[in-house]
Amino acid sequence: MSKQRIISCQVTFHPYSESYSEVITEVLARFEPGSLAVETGTMSSVWIGPEKPVWQKMREFYNLAQDQNLPFKLDFTLSNSCVSEGD
Question: Is residue 9 helix, strand or coil?
């Protein structure tokens, strides 16, 4: 059996709304990272975990953003080399 690949995903969410801060807070509160390690910063978050769950959580996060019924920009940057120490 092959070893699971660990990847990281930097997520940046930009809702186009005057109340963007509240929208971001709402989406982050509803997001359940499951088995992923999450590092949340002021401008973006980084998820670290096995490849398949990261891809699944990207779709889930997109759906949570879409549920806000506002225009938005959502950036995902993936890396197979930028993972936390010990992984």
Answer: strand
**C-alpha distances out from residue 64 to 8, 26, 40, 80, 83, Å:** 20, 9, 17, 25, 25
Does residue 13 lie in a domain region? yes
Residue 86 within any structural domain of the chain: no
Rg (CA), the chain: 14
Helix, strand, or coil (residue 28)? helix
DSSP type of residue 4: P
CB-CB contact of 79 with 87 (8 Å): no
**Structure confidence by residue, pLDDT tens digits, 1-51:** 567 899 999 999 999 999 999 999 999 999 999 999 999 999 999 999 999
Phi, then psi, of 61 in degrees rounded to 5: -65, -40
